[in-house]
Amino acid sequence: MKRMDYFLSTCRAASVLGGALMLAACAGQPEYYALSSEPGVPAGSMKVTSRDAAKPGTMTLDAQAPIAMHDEQTVRPANIDAQKMQARFAKALSAQPLPPTRFTLYFVEGSDTLTAESQKAITSILDEIKQRPAPDLVVVGHTDRVGSLSNNDRLAAVRANTIRQQLISRGIDAESIQATGRGERDPLVPTADEVAEPRNRRVEILVR
Amino acid sequence: MNQIKYILITTAVAMPGFCAVPVWAQTTPAAQPFVAQIKVSRGIVRIDRAGQRFPGPPGARIKVDDIIITEGNGSVGLMFADNSTLSMGPDSEVVLQRFNYDPTTYMGAFDAYVKQGTVSLQAGNLAQSGADNLRVTTPKSELKGNAKQLLISVGDAK
């Protein structure tokens, strides 16, 4: 309600000032909603509901009906050329941040000591950080399934923090590195409980 | 986890010209006030925070309740703590109403109000943990679900 009030008061202000753009928006310029997806990736779905009590309507955006609009009537599927939609959103899409680059480092069993090979790989992480104008890092610790859930939560957090400290000691801004643990709940290689699996004893580092 | 430090922001009523004073403190991720960072910024981009206006260059951090605004020559791309991204074309305005995220369980919620302009939203880890974690409102509609990528246009396209 507060948000709608805000919008209506903006409309009134636009009327007073004669702001053509806001008037157009308030007077019923259609809104457009579209799901976009890459081949092989599920697009998900969104339920779209009109917020205008005088123009009730609802529909689901999904792979079958990926584009909708809200015009003077209500929410309804829209049949709009995909290229026109791309053109409408070209500048917004071109401002999308680079996807994160993922690195994985491995540990000696039960410890927060990196394997010798992983210790060397830290250099390539530092190189990736230098490529980005406003880098920040997410360090996520993982364990295999040897030991209790709670101990593994703790070990995963310790591993993540150890790597965070190493990166700080190599000159990366502490404020830009977030470290968390996921324990044993997100294995790279699924195993039965109490199975030692070196590939699951890892931290994943996202350079974003 | 307990070694992580987060900035706590306290409002300093007695300091005209500043709305916030950063204080280092140990706390939980839920209290982390900065939830996103500007990665791409072109033209004029600004952040309205509690009535104060800030520029939005690459590296600027975003909090819940911030209003992100691009001028006619502007566009901006944000990345959130869960790897969700939100990018905006020119003459756009978005209010970040809610962002809760637990990096251990991926549970949380993302609410944004698109007041004006063109917006592309790419869902990150949040969308994996619940069917309705993503919520976007516009002047005319409410959208709720688990879209991987959502495009929204409000008003004239620029």
Would you kindly provide a written description of the structure presented here, covering whatever features stand out?
The complex is a heterodimer of chains A (208) and B (158). Chain A has helices at residues 2-17, 20-26, 82-88, 90-94, 116-130, 149-169, and strands spanning 31-36, 46-50, 58-61, 67-70, 75-77, 101-106, 137-141, 177-181, 202-207. Chain A is of the alpha+beta class and 208 residues long. Chain A has 2 domains: 2-94, no CATH class; 101-207, OmpA-like domain (60s Ribosomal Protein L30, Chain: A). In chain A, the strands form 3 sheets. Chain A has a 4-stranded mixed β-sheet. Chain A has a 3-stranded antiparallel β-sheet with strand order 1-4-5, with no helix packed on it. In chain A, α1 crosses α2. The two termini of chain A are 36 Å apart. Mean pLDDT of chain A is 86; it is low at 1-26. Chain B has one domain (30-154). The chains are: A alpha+beta (208), B mainly beta (158). Chains A and B meet through α1, α2, β1, β2 and α4 of A and β3, β8, β9, β11 and β13 of B. β2 of chain A pairs antiparallel with β13 (141-145) of chain B, so a sheet runs across the interface.
Key traits:
heterodimer, A: 208 residues, alpha+beta, 60s Ribosomal Protein L30, Chain: A, three-stranded antiparallel sheet, B: 158 residues, mainly beta, twelve-stranded mixed sheet, 14 strands, globular
Quick structural gist:
With 208 residues, chain A is an alpha+beta fold.
Question: What is the fold's blueprint, element by element?
Answer:
The complex is a heterodimer of chains A (208) and B (158).
Chain A: H1 2-17, H2 20-26, E1 31-36, E2 46-50, E3 58-61, E4 67-70, E5 75-77, H3 82-88, H4 90-94, E6 101-106, H5 116-130, E7 137-141, H6 149-169, E8 177-181, E9 202-207
Parallel strand pairs in A: 7-8
Antiparallel strand pairs in A: 1-4, 2-3, 4-5, 6-9, 7-9
Chain B: E1 6-10, E2 21-25, E3 34-42, E4 45-49, E5 52-55, E6 61-63, E7 67-70, E8 75-80, E9 85-88, E10 93-101, E11 108-122, E12 134-137, E13 141-145, E14 149-154
Parallel strand pairs in B: 11-12
Antiparallel strand pairs in B: 1-2, 3-6, 3-8, 4-5, 4-7, 7-10, 8-9, 9-11, 10-11, 11-14, 12-13
